[in-house]
Amino acid sequence: MRSLFYKLFLSFLLISLLASFTTIMISYWAQVGPYGELKKRVGYNQLQALTHSLSITGLATVKIHESGGKEALMVYLEELEKQPYIQIFLLQEDNSNFSNRKLPPGAVDLAVSSRTSHDLQYNVSETAIMVALPLVSQDWQGMTLVGSTARIMRPPVFSDDKETEGWQRLLFFRHRFGLPILVVVLIAAAGCYLLASSLTAPIRDLRKATQQMSKGDFSARVDHLSGGKDEIADLSRDFNTMAERTQSLLQSQKRLLRDVSHELRSPLTRQNLALELARQRFSDAEPYLARIEKESGRLSELIDQLLILTRIECNIDNAPKKPVSLCKLLSDIVHDANFEAANQDRRIEIQNLDKVTVLGSMEMLGRALENVIRNGLHYTAAGSAVEINISKGEDDVAIIVRDHGPGVPQEYFEQIFQPFFRVAESRGRDSGGTGIGLAIAKQAILMHGGRIEARNAESGGLVIEIHLPLS
């Protein structure tokens, strides 16, 4: 699992659930013992109370029957039926109910046992207490009072009624644990989600700013600090400080490079003027003057490319973006390059030159493509061709330029797009170029929202692949 958010969320959730379940189980088991003891004590007290009540009722029943007869006894039994918590029945010798009420299960067997033993008998079950007491009277033989009361119990969430819905039994485990567990899980999940989200939000902002910086946007900052004083907030502030310092240094470097390039133009102009004057006066020094002119030209070209590179990197190209036909642009570049490379036994071949239009600056795109193509001409083998292939996709167009030169080691694929970088073994200064062409190409392509990358061809040579978004 790679996401820090999910790691934090699941870790907090697991810890919360373990702590909650442990607390619930400790609380429950702490109550099981006391509740069991309390249940026994309450059951004993209920049995004593029912026995006492049945003894008093038995004496009253005998006296009422002796003094008032059966009618008075029936009135008394009807009053007893109104009691809410105790049921009292008067059974005759044939075990029939004196008032024709429905007897509870086991009442007849308990009454028979009581008459046989001539003593009080009781039965205590999980849900009820029942007591049978034989009556002693000269007129009555075999009459028995049976009393019944429900036991005092902790009520379950659901009864054991078979009509209870299945989803309710599943949810509550037919007892009392289901709903508390569900509530604990929901509360823990919500709390852990909010906690993990609050911890990872600034990290996501920091990662977003880092990605922007890696793409060359050194103005990226972490904005949502919220005045925090924790380690993540300190890290975000340190990142902003680092980004500001890096941006300032890069701007100073670019400004210095631009200013130096501008300042070198004037001495070069005066040098070229002095060179013409020297050629007019000292004709015998022509070989030396030609060498000075060549080096001056290379230096002038280097300054021009430095100015172009700094202009692109500083995003000060104000040329309006217009539809650019890649077919016409590449045709013009290839025509000029083939004319110059004819005496070098090299050529350029274009494949799949379809009509493709992109939105951008013709000048910047032309410089980028020309630099890549001329770079291929510098290093392709004599008698070979630089191959250009255009592939149009749904959202972009790919321009693939391949030479037949020595290629580049894989570890240098990214570095060849940096200014002044050279691969010493195969691409030294003697081969020509200023070392800025591919850097200009990369910045121009990035300015148009595209990308550029390098790789070696399977049969040898370097492949430069450019992707540009379609207009």
As a percent range, the share of strand residues is 5-15%
Helical amount: 40-55%
Specify the number of helices. 9
Shape: rod-shaped
Which structural traits does this protein have?
471 residues, alpha+beta, Helix Hairpins, 5-stranded mixed beta sheet, 4-stranded antiparallel beta sheet, single chain, rod-shaped, 3 domains, Beta-Lactamase, 9 helices, Heat Shock Protein 90
Structure notes:
The strands form three sheets. Strands 6-8-9-11-10 form a five-stranded mixed sheet. It has a four-stranded antiparallel sheet with strand order 1-4-3-2, sandwiched between helices. A hairpin with a 3-residue loop joins strand 2 (about 120-125) and strand 3. The protein is built from nine helices and eleven strands. It is rod-shaped, with a radius of gyration of 50 Å. It is about 55% helix and about 15% strand. It has three domains: about 5-170, 2-Layer Sandwich (Beta-Lactamase), CATH 3.30.450; about 230-315, Signal transduction histidine kinase, dimerisation/phosphotransfer (DHp) domain (Helix Hairpins), CATH 1.10.287.130; about 320-470, 2-Layer Sandwich (Heat Shock Protein 90). Helix 1 (about 5-80) runs antiparallel to helix 4 (about 180-215) and helix 8 (about 360-380) packs antiparallel against helix 9 (about 435-445). It has helices at about 5-80, 105-115, 165-170, 180-215, 230-280, 285-315, 325-340, 360-380, 435-445, and strands at about 85-90, 120-125, 130-135, 145-150, 320-325, 345-350, 355-360, 385-390, 395-400, 450-455, 460-470. The two termini are about 40 Å apart.
